[in-house]
UniProtKB/TrEMBL annotation:
DNA-binding region: 32-51
Transmembrane as UniProt keyword: no
Gene3D superfamilies referenced in this protein's UniProt entry, alphabetically: Tetracycline Repressor, domain 2
Ranges of residues in domain HTH tetR-type: 11-69
GO molecular function: DNA-binding transcription factor activity; transcription cis-regulatory region binding
Keyword hit for DNA-binding: yes
Keywords associated with the record: DNA-binding, Transcription, Transcription regulation
InterPro entries: Homeodomain-like_sf, HTH-type_TetR-like_transc_reg, HTH_TetR
UniProt-recorded name of the protein: HTH tetR-type domain-containing protein
Length: 198
């Protein structure tokens, strides 16, 4: 069944509002619906036709954020290649989420979808890390939940650095992935017996 031009237009308008909401709320969670409408280049009446209440818009933003995270996970192909290679693909896909990262870091409570809010790592991430432990590309002393926390910390650091310095996104992503490469790599053989002083 072919969509009508009107339904296609409605889909584009709704998506424009969601895109604008993610960008604007990432900068200011208290932003008004008028500010979001302006960013989306629609009138307040149009915004209210799609999202009658602020809570309706926030629920849609949450669902859209979780959907973008799911798509990023799928594009990263976590079950392919070495564990480290999959980890770096995931880092790149998450970094490319753009405004959604700003929203997740600034106002994580706005993304309430269970896909994002569940505690701990999902099974695919755990399997990727286990594969990296087995294939020798990820330090076996680093558990999955620690690596997930490290990934998000580096992404936050990267986006903060991007906001504060005259540097391209590509350059920042290079810094983030270089840092993570060194952070997750197994230590050289002569260092593996090292234990931290107490």
């Amino acid at each position: 069944m072919v969509s009508s031009p009107e339904s296609g237009s409605r889909t584009r308008t709704r998506q424009a509002i969601l895109d604008a909401a993610i960008e604007v709320l990432g900068q200011n969670a208290a932003a008004s619906l008028g500010e979001i409408a302006t960013a989306a280049q629609v009138g307040r009446t149009t915004l209210h036709r799609y999202f009658p209440e602020r809570s309706d818009l926030l629920a849609a933003v949450s669902a859209e954020g979780a959907a973008r995270l799911r798509r990023a996970d799928e594009r990263a192909r976590l079950d392919e290649g070495t564990g480290a290679a999959a980890f770096h693909r995931l880092c790149t896909e998450y970094f490319d989420l753009g405004g959604l990262l700003s929203l997740l870091f600034a106002e994580p409570q706005l993304i309430t979808d269970p896909y994002w809010s569940e505690e701990g790592c999902d099974d695919d991430f755990v399997a990727m890390v286990a594969r990296g432990h087995a294939d020798g590309t990820i330090d076996p002393a680093l558990p999955a939940d620690w690596l997930q926390s490290t990934l998000w910390s580096q992404l936050y650091g990267g986006w903060s650095y991007l906001a504060e310095h005259d540097i391209s996104r590509h350059e920042v992503l290079t810094l983030v992935t270089r840092t993570l490469t060194k952070a997750i790599a197994p230590p050289p053989p002569h260092d593996r017996a090292f234990t931290a002083p107490t």
